[in-house]
Design a protein that fits this description.
Length: about 60
């Protein structure tokens, strides 16, 4: 009887672990979909102002 109970506990643990992995995978997929939806077809362009390596000509 003890082995059956241990089997039942292990099966429940595996089911919880599988649910957790499924939720993580779905969250990553949703995040990737939102990220790709925000990007335009031309690609992402940085809007930060960076200093150039060269100075302006007079």
């Amino acid at each position: 009887m003890f082995e059956y109970e241990m089997h039942q506990l292990r099966a429940a643990d595996l089911a919880r672990e599988a649910d957790h992995h499924r939720l993580v995978r779905e969250a990553k997929a949703a995040r990737a979909a939102r990220r790709s939806a925000r990007q335009e077809t031309e690609g992402r362009v940085s809007t930060t102002l960076r200093r150039t390596r060269f100075t302006r000509a007079a």
